[in-house]
Amino acid sequence: MDFDLLTTIGDCDALIAVFTDKIADVNYRKEGAKRSAESLLERKTRREADLASVNAEITSLQSVIDSLPEGDIKDEFVYDKTLKEHELFRLQNSTVVSLENYFIREADKENYDSLAIQYGDHIAGLEARKTAIQNG
Q1: What gap in Å lies between CA 96 and CA 117, rounded to an integer?
Q2: Could you point out which of 6, 13, 70, 80 has its C-alpha 20 to 30 Å from the C-alpha of 94?
Q3: CA dihedral 92, 97, 99, 102 (to 10 degrees)
Q4: b or e along 98-125 (b: 16 or more beta carbons within 10 Å of the residue's beta carbon)?
Q5: In angstroms, rounded to a whole number, what is the distance separating the alpha carbons of residues 120 and 66?
Q6: Are the CB atoms for 36 and 102 separated by under 8 Å?
Q7: Model confidence pLDDT, tens digit, residues 55-101
Q8: How far is the first Cα of the chain from the last one, in angstroms, to the nearest whole number?
Q9: 78 CB burial (10 A radius; 0-12, 13-18, 19+)
Q10: What is the secondary structure of 44-95 as a DSSP string?
Q11: Could you read off the pLDDT of 22-67 as tens digits, one per residue?
Q12: How far apart are CA 15 and CA 119, in angstroms?
């Protein structure tokens, strides 16, 4: 940037305030991207754990069902297994959390870091120009 175009301290201060606000905005967006990435990983991990848990429960219920004689108790276990199979179906058909979105959020965070550095460089240039104007 050509900071020599600025001729007053007021102009410098106004632009410093603008870039300071921009840095605050970028940091806010970066925090949002960070939280979003963490949330995506957490949801993906939770879903995988839930799938494994439900599959294990179905397997254990099936082994109990296989060992029981016909009757009310076996029917209750079959009913419980049916509920777990329904839960498994819902989990398998729920929105899949992709790692693609996680990596997009990570890239966003890096972009925000770069913007904050650029804005900081602009502020440093403006401060230098402000000092030059003050010194004459």
Answers
A1: 35
A2: 80
A3: -170
A4: eeeebeebeebbeebeebbeebeebbeb
A5: 69
A6: no
A7: 999 999 999 999 999 999 999 999 999 999 999 999 988 877 778 88
A8: 21
A9: middle
A10: HHHHHHHHHHHHHHHHHHHHHHHHSPSSHHHHHHHHHHHHHHHHHHHHHTSP
A11: 999 999 999 999 999 999 999 888 999 999 999 999 999 999 999 9
A12: 11
| Residue 7 buriedness (CB in 10 A; 0-12 / 13-18 / 19+) | exposed
Q: With beta carbons less than 8 A apart as the criterion, state whether 58 and 77 touch.
A: no
Query: 53-69 in b/e burial notation, b at 16+ Cβ within 10 A?
Result: ebeebbeebeeebeeee
Of 81, 103, 94, which Cα lies nearest the Cα of 50?
A: 94
Give the C-alpha separation, 122 to 10, whole Å.
Answer: 16
Written as one letter, the residue type at 77 is F
Both tokens of residue 89? 């179906």
